[in-house]
Amino acid sequence: MTGIISSGEKRLVVVSGRAYPELAEAVAKELKTELLPTTAYDFANGEIYVRFNESVRGADAFVIQSYTQDLNKWLVEQLIMVDALKRASAKRITVVAPSYPYARQDKKHQGREPISARLVADLFKTAGADRIMSVDLHASQSQGFFNGPLDHLYAMPVLVDYVKTRVGADKDKITVVSPDAGRVRVAEKWANRLGGCSLAFVHKTRDTTKPNHAVANRVVGEVEGKHCVLVDDMIDTGGTIAEAVKVLLASGAADVIVAATHGILSDPATQRLSECGAREVVVTNTLPIEGSKRFDKLTVLSIAPLLARAIKEVFDDGSVTSLFDGPVA
Ligand code: R5P
């Protein structure tokens, strides 16, 4: 039987959707277990079939899915998996969505828009999820969309540990930069973690009638001669980051390292990022990054150890907060 049995006779079971099983396998390996064998396929008309090949009765089940291309399909698949677990008498079901689908649609910018991130939370609840685990939600307060526990993990410690090896320890030579005014608080946490270095942000404007259209106007803060660490939650088409890198270099930055949690990297991100002048672009693997999206200056860090530690804390009724030395966002 697959799973981890605790001394208290609880059983931890990890199941994976088909979007990015490699990440789920890495998480299971960290937990020293294996994924529960699962059958999943598509019918000719696109409907999805799922069945777990072993009993999950009484299990503490964690359902991992990544929201890569075709994310609407992967959302339905994760919902169906939760439903199957509930109907098979799993004791507790946790949706593990390292990158939360529709996270950017967390409020109405104009009349007659949906709040899709809330709708997704409602769908998970209706399917039977008892809790959600996610990494770096676009807006922290979206936690409240789910009526139940939501473990909000932060990739910052993983990214900071790496970035420190690239920018050195002299805080006077480093500036953390937010690519827009909305993320200055997160950048401030980064600056604290980098020893109290200075802070800047890029004044960005956006045409909300066009998707992924951002213009970086100017830098607010001192960046001349500094190693700039440009931090964001996600890189989608790379427009925001590439524009910000160019403005920073034009303002006299010594160099720019980009650090972001979710590397969506939709076209033309690879081209934009490799040509924008950044010294390095660092992301985690909350999403799969295929070979065609990779480029010389891209570094991908594994989020699997963090997810595994958080899953173990939840299973053991331990503390997820303890993984972060207090709040980081
Ligand atoms: C915006 O608020 C987000 O934090 C990202 O900066 C943005 O969604 C990235 O999109 P793109 O890479 O297409 O500019």
TrEMBL record:
It catalyses: D-ribose 5-phosphate + ATP = 5-phospho-alpha-D-ribose 1-diphosphate + AMP + H(+). Its main location: cytoplasm. D-ribose 5-phosphate binds at residues 206, 232, 236-240. Its cofactor is Mg(2+). SMART domains: Pribosyltran_N (SM01400). One of its GO terms (biological process) is 5-phosphoribose 1-diphosphate biosynthetic process. Homohexamer. This is Ribose-phosphate pyrophosphokinase. The lineage of its organism: Bacteria, Bacillati, Actinomycetota, Actinomycetes, Actinomycetales. The gene is prs.
